[in-house]
Amino acid sequence: MNETISKEASAPKKKDRLFTFIRITVSLLLLLWIIFRNYKNFQDIYYIIINASLIYLALAVLMHAGHLYMNALRWNVLLRASDERVSLAFLYQSVYIGHFYNNLLPSNIGGDFYKIYDVHKNRDVPLSKAVSTVIMERFFSVIAIITYFAVTSFSLYSILKNSIIMIAVFLSLAVLLFIVILRPKLFRIDRLFNRFKRLKKLEIGIANFNNAVNLFRHKWPNLIMGLIFTFAAQSFYMVIYYFISLSMGLDISFKTFVFVVPVIFVLTGIPISIGGLGVRENTIVFLLTRFGVTNEQAVAFSLLVMFLTLFTAGIGGIIYLFKNIFYKSKGFI
């Protein structure tokens, strides 16, 4: 009896380890793909990187801190809407640590999971409310991504042509999926859940999303403020990319990044790699070369974005260590 229970408990752990191994492998293969395709030109790429303006790169780091601060403000607004009071300073450090989990740890414990754990264990926020606020954050991000893409896609069609059509189809399918999740009974998805028991996890996820929406149904001022902070956070990220382009002396308009960044967000959000590593770099090279940037410049740009992302994630890791050593908070790795 005990052996059976032990085997059942170990099965999910084996699946998690396998999934983590696959994600690490995908990230490494995609990075190796960039290196393999550009190894003859790496001297030129290295020259571009070392000659990048440190002032603009420092500004990009500050913009990244601003991006995470906007995320903390959004989270604060949503927690207040659910009648929970957590200091903004606490939420800001939790967002930074979540960024560390998303980008540097090869595990299935993502930044959202950490944020939920942190406010639940260290600030006594009920688990249901912690989950609901984080779900709404993701939903707001999707709204902002689709909006920015729609605003810029028409003016950029002449440059991207077939590529923009494929991206538009992908985002349209994402919108349709959210509509289905919001109204599963309208599309009779609930019948699928009853027929196929293996879809139970998906049913639970949809139920959690609907519960989150219902929690904030009559909190319009908070929802509007949450959306404003979401658009601000996305804008900060576009400025980050723009500053990196200025550091390299690239002649790219800010409007380009209003289109590029949402696409990168969507593709790196697919959980097939570690923090989007590899996916992000290849996507950047693919998109920037469509805007007249040379392949060497696009690769250098993608590597600068990677270094900046890992640097800011490292700051989150340092905050995590200080938090656990000096403040004895409940944490995990």
Question: Secondary-structure map with pairings?
Answer:
Blueprint: H1 2-38, H2 42-50, H3 54-81, H4 88-104, H5 111-123, H6 127-160, H7 162-182, H8 189-195, H9 200-215, H10 220-247, H11 254-268, H12 279-288, H13 295-326
Helix pairs in contact: 2-13, 3-4, 3-6, 3-10, 4-5, 4-13, 5-6, 6-7, 6-9, 6-10, 6-11, 10-11, 11-12, 12-13
Structural write-up:
The protein is an all-alpha fold and 333 residues long. The model is unreliable at 4-9 (pLDDT under 50). It is built from 13 helices and no strands. It has helices spanning 2-38, 42-50, 54-81, 88-104, 111-123, 127-160, 162-182, 189-195, 200-215, 220-247, 254-268, 279-288, 295-326.
Low-confidence stretches: 4-9
Between the first and last Cα atoms, what is the distance in angstroms?
31 Å
Number of helices: 13
Beta-strand level of the residues, as a percent range? under 5%
Structural class by helix and strand composition: mainly alpha
| Main sheet attributes: strand count, strand direction, barrel closure | none
Question: How many runs of DSSP E, i.e. beta strands?
Answer: 0
Summarize the helix and strand pattern as letters: HHHHHHHHHHHHH
Radius of gyration: 21 Å
Helix content: over 70%
Shape: globular
Summarize the structure.
With 333 residues, the chain is mainly α. The chain has helices spanning 2-38, 42-50, 54-81, 88-104, 111-123, 127-160, 162-182, 189-195, 200-215, 220-247, 254-268, 279-288, 295-326. It starts with a helix and ends in a 7-residue tail after the last helix.
